[in-house]
Design brief:
By secondary structure, this protein is of the alpha+beta class. Helix content is 24%, strand content 23%. A hairpin with a 6-residue loop joins strand 22 and strand 23. The radius of gyration is 27 Å and the shape is globular. The termini are far apart.
Amino acid sequence: MREPVVGKPLDRIDGRLKVTGGAKYAAEYIVGTAAHAVLITSTIAKGRVRSMDTSAAERASGVIKVLTPFNAPKLPGAPRPGPQPTAASGAQGGQAGQGGQSASGGQGAQGPAARGAVAMRIPTLLQDDVVRYNGQPIGLVVADTFEHAMAGAALVRVRYDGEKPTLDMASAPLNPPESVRPLGGERLSRRGDVERGLADAAVRIDQTYTTPLENHNPMEVHSTVATWEGDALTLYESTQGLFSVRNTVARHFGLAPDKVKVVAYFTGGGFGSKGGPWSHESLAAMAAREVGRPVKLVLTRRQMFGPVGGRPMTVQRVTLGATRDGTLTAIRHHSTSSTSTIEDWVEPAAAQTRMLYATPNLETQYDLKRLNVGSPTFQRAPGESTGTFALESAMDELAYALRMDPVALRLKNYAERDPENGRPWSSKKLRECYASGAERFGWSRRAIEPRSMRDGRWLVGWGMATATYPARTSQAASVARMLPDGRAWVRAGSQEIGTGTYTVMTQIAADALGIGQEHVRFELGTTEMPENPASTGSVTAASTGSAVNAAATALRQRLVQMAVADAASPLHGAAEVDVRVADGRMSLASDSSRGETYAALIARSGSQPVEVTVTNRLGPEQQQYSMHAFGAVFTEVRVDEELGLVRVPRVVTAHAVGRVLNEKTARSQIHGGVVWGIGMALEEETLIDPRSGRYVNADLAEYHVPVNADVGTIDVAFIDEPDAVVNRVGVKGCGEIGITGVAASIANAVWHATGRRMRDLPIRVERVMSDDR
C-alpha cells in the first residue's frame, strides 16, 4: 500500500512543460488571422483630451483602425466615471458585484461577503474624454502586426486641456470619512479606552512609518487575445480570476455570462495585479468586434505602471503603551493610504494590529487621500505587508525602550484568543514559530546593544518580526470522473499562477481516490469548468483544494456504493464503511483478498465513466473560529559603515500554515515572499514626476527588484499544525504570509547594526547614513 502523497515534495507536474516552452501563455495563442492592438496612453495626469489627430496613423502601413474616445462604440454596461467606494459582494466563488474584482475572507474566513470585494470600476474604456492619471489608456491602434501597431500609435497627435494634478501625499486633502470603506472591517475600530491605557503606560512609543508606491512587475505582462463568434466572446487571458474577468467583460458588453469564455491555462505571475479585470480585456474585445477579426493586446512594460494597479503609499502612525514588564496597555494604529480619483481603494494596513497582540485597549483608523495616479489594487499580502512593517517596527522600538528581548515582548503579549472578536483560534502555533526560528537562527547569541556586533568593516545586525495572514476559504466546485481504465480526470475552474496548483490538486485527488498520482489528470483554466474563486488572498489551496477533495471523496463513495450493490462484485453486501481503497483497488478492511479494482467494476457496469460534481460550501465553523496563519522571521544584515550599503546574508523563517500540501512548492512560496520582502525593505519604489505625474522608473532597469546577488541564505521551517476546522484539507495557504514581517525584520536588524531607526521604506543609502536616529 502506498503512503499518502499529500505533503510530499513532489516535482511540479507542469514543470517540464514550463522549462521546455510547452506551457502556453495568453499572448502565445494564435487565433485565426489575429490583428495586434497597442494602447495609446495619456501624457498628462489630469484634464481632458481636446482632440486626437489620427490621420497619419490611419494612413500608416498595416494600420486597420484607430479607436479613441471620439469614435469608440458605447458599451451598455460600462461603469460610471468618478471615485467609487469598495463594494461588498455576496456572490459566490469570490466574484465581486459591480466591477468583478474578487477578494475573499476576513477575520475567520470566509468569503467575499465577509471581507468585501473591491469593484474595479474601469472608467478608461474610451467612454469619455476625461484624463485621471498619466498613462491612462485613451486610445487603441489596431494593425496587422505588433510593429505596425506600435508605429501607428506613435503617429497619433493628442491635444489636451490640462489641469493641475494632485500628486503630493503630504498636501492632498483627506477624503470624507464616509468614503473610506476598508476591506475586512470598518474605518474605525475601538475596544477599551485607548487614552486611559496610554495614560497608565510606563513606556510609550509614538512614531510614524511610511511605505511608497510599488508595482507588481510579473515576468508575464498583462495580455489578452479576444475573438468573437457571433455574439459569443472568447478571451485568452493572463489572469488570476477567470470568472471575475468573465463576469465583468460580459457586463460591459451587456452579455449573459455564459456568452463569454475565458481561457488561462498558465499565468506568468500576477501577485494581485491580475486578480481581476482592467481596461485591456474589454478594449481588446471592443477592437476585435470593430475590426471583425481576433485581436491580441499585450501591454508594454511601461503600461504595467498605472493601468493595472500597484501598492499604494501609506503613512502609518503607531502608538504603543506598556508597563515596565512589557504588558501592552494600549495600541493605536492610524493608517492613511493613497488612492486614485477613480475609486476609493483602502490599503487595510491595520488588519493585523486588531488581532495579533493581546491588549485591552485598541484603536485603528483608516484615512484616504485621492491622487491623480492609477488605481491601487491587491499586491502580495495587501495590508499585512505594509501594516506589519509599521506594527513590528514599533514593537521593536518598544522592546528597546524596555530593554527587553523582542521575542520576549511578543510572547508577553501573546493572544490566546482573537482579541478582536473573542473567538478561539482554529489553530495557532506562533509560540512554536518563535522557538523554532530563534533556535535555527542562533538568536540567543545576539548582543542586545546596537552597534555591538561587527565583522571587519561590516556592522552586523540581527532583527526579527512576527508574520501573519488570514486563512481564507471561499466556495468552490470541482468535477471528478473515473475512466474505464482506472484513471481519474478531475477539473476545477481555477488558475495556475506559478504556485503549483496543478501539482497539489493532483496530490489531493490521488489520496482521496486511493490511487497513485500518476493515474490522476487534473485540469484547470477555463470558465467552462466548475466555478472557483480568483487566486488571490491565499485562497486557492484551501478553496479549490477543498472542492477537489470533496469531489474525489464523493466519487470514491459512489464507486464503493456501486460495488457493494452489485451482485457480481466480491464486495456485494458489504457495509460501505468497511471498504478500503488502495492503489485503485477496493477491498474489505477485514479481508483484503475480497475486493476488486475500479477498472473491473466499471467494465462490468458497461464501461461508462462515473462522474460526480461537488460544490464545497462553507460551514458554521467559519463564524465560530478565528483562522490565521502565523510565522516568525529572523534576519541578519550587514551594513558598510562608510558607504551605508545594506546586505542580507541570511533569513530564517518558521511558519505555521496548517497542513502543508507539498513541501517543495510551499517552501518555494515562502522563499518568494522573503525575496519580495527584501525588495520591499531595500529597493522597491515607484517614482512619479511631481510636475506631470509620469511614472519615471517604469521599467525593470530603473524599478529595482532583488536579483540573485542580493539574496543570501533563506532557511524555511514549517511547524506541523493539523487543523480540522479551517477547511476540508486543513490548509491555510502560504502565498502571502511569506512577505509579511520581512521588511520590519530587516529594518529592525539595520537598527541593531547601526543604531539608526529606519521608519521609511525603502531603506536607501542616504537614509542609513543620515544622522536622524
